[in-house]
Design brief:
By secondary structure, this protein is of the alpha/beta class. It has one domain: 3-Layer(aba) Sandwich (Rossmann fold), CATH 3.40.50.620. Helix content is 47%, strand content 26%. The protein is built from six helices and five strands. It has a five-stranded parallel sheet with strand order 3-2-1-4-5, with helices on both faces. Strand 1, helix 1 and strand 2 form a beta-alpha-beta unit. Helix 4 runs parallel beside helix 6. The longest helix is centred in the middle third of the chain and has 21 residues. It is globular. The relative contact order is 0.22.
C-alpha cells in the first residue's frame, strides 16, 4: 500500500483518468493522500523558433482554471482524501517534478496504445516511467 499517490489526469482523457483514480483509491493506505495533477502545456515553449504568434496568457490561465474545477469535481465525486494541483509545463516533466517534491510512493498514469509518433518522441507515460524516482504504474 502507498501513503502518497500522484494521479496525473489529462483533460482530454477524463474517462481513463477516473479509472486510474479508482485504482489509486484501492492502493492508498488509510490516512494516505492522493494528489490529482494536471499539467497545462505551455504553448509558447513549443512555438519558439517555429512561429511568430505569441499565445496570450489568458489561454493558459483559462486552461488551469478549467483543470482545477474539473479535478475538484472528480475529488468530490470519488470522495478522495487528497488535493488538486495544476502546473504549467511539459506533462512528463511536471509529473516527475511533483512526484519528487511530494516524496510520492507511486505515480499512476493512464496511457494509450502507442502510435507511430510515440516511437519517435515517446509517450508521456514512458518518459515518466523512465525518469521518475518512485514506482510508476501505467494503466492501459
Amino acid at each position: 500500500m502507498y501513503r502518497k499517490i500522484i494521479v496525473p489526469i489529462a483533460m482530454d482523457q477524463l474517462e481513463h483518468g477516473e479509472k486510474t483514480l479508482g485504482i489509486a483509491k484501492t492502493l492508498l493506505d488509510p490516512g494516505g493522500e492522493i494528489v490529482l495533477l494536471n499539467a497545462v502545456e505551455d504553448l509558447n515553449a513549443y512555438a519558439q523558433g517555429y512561429m511568430i504568434v505569441d499565445f496570450p496568457m489568458e489561454i493558459i490561465d483559462a486552461s488551469r482554471k478549467h483543470a482545477v474545477a474539473t479535478l475538484k469535481g472528480l475529488k468530490e465525486k470519488h470522495a478522495i482524501n487528497g488535493r488538486v494541483e495544476t502546473r504549467v509545463g511539459s506533462a512528463a516533466s511536471v509529473i516527475n517534478t511533483v512526484a519528487d517534491e511530494e516524496g510520492a510512493d507511486l505515480v499512476i498514469i493512464a496511457s494509450h496504445r502507442p502510435g507511430l509518433i510515440d516511437y519517435f518522441i515517446g509517450s508521456t507515460a514512458s518518459r515518466v516511467a523512465s525518469h521518475c524516482q518512485c514506482t510508476v504504474l501505467i494503466d492501459r
